[in-house]
Design brief:
Elements (H helix, E strand, L loop, with lengths): L13 E4 L4 E3 L7 E6 L6 H12 L1 H6 L2 E7 L3 H10 L5 E4 L4 H5 L3 E6 L2 E6 L3 E4 L5 E5 L7 H10 L3
């Protein structure tokens, strides 16, 4: 899979959300999209990031930004995570790892000196035309929500 770069057309996909509804990236043409990949539901960093996005949700709506969270957890896991944390945005289940592979966010991670294969915390900001406007390779869970809004307001 070729590396995605700024200006590239964001690869389309179809995934089920926490309510088992189908979503395609092309459903959101005309809007900014924060496509954020995260390692696992109900883990500390992922919960912090999701709650920061939840707390900024009104600001995102005001600026025509759709939030789509993606992990390899199941729709059922996403439903519990979304309900527990009152998340008002869509979480997509990529259980077969096709989309994390397509977006190059699957790879070797290291925690406490142990290496394993998993989903990296990487986000893509996609413009209303469907092109990648920015790639966030070093996402800080407590800062990411405001960083994305600032970038959209600057129009990248």
């Amino acid at each position: 899979m070729a590396k995605l770069e700024i200006g590239d057309k964001a690869p389309n996909f179809i995934l089920l959300d926490q309510n088992e509804a189908s979503h395609s990236l092309t459903d959101y043409l005309g809007k900014w999209i924060l496509l954020y990949f995260y390692p696992k539901d109900n883990t500390p960093g992922c919960t912090k990031e999701a709650c920061e996005l939840r707390n900024s949700y009104t600001e995102y709506n005001k600026n025509n930004i759709t939030i789509l969270g993606v992990s390899t957890d199941s729709s059922k896991s996403h439903k519990g995570f979304a309900d527990k944390n009152n998340l008002p945005f869509t979480l997509l289940a990529d259980s077969d790892k096709k989309v994390v592979t397509l977006y190059n966010v699957q790879g070797v991670k290291k925690i406490f000196g142990k290496e394993f294969n998993g989903t990296k915390r990487i986000s893509y900001l996609i413009n209303p035309e469907g092109n990648i406007a920015k790639i966030y390779l070093k996402v800080k869970p407590t800062e990411h929500a405001s960083e994305v809004i600032a970038d959209v307001l600057k129009k990248i």
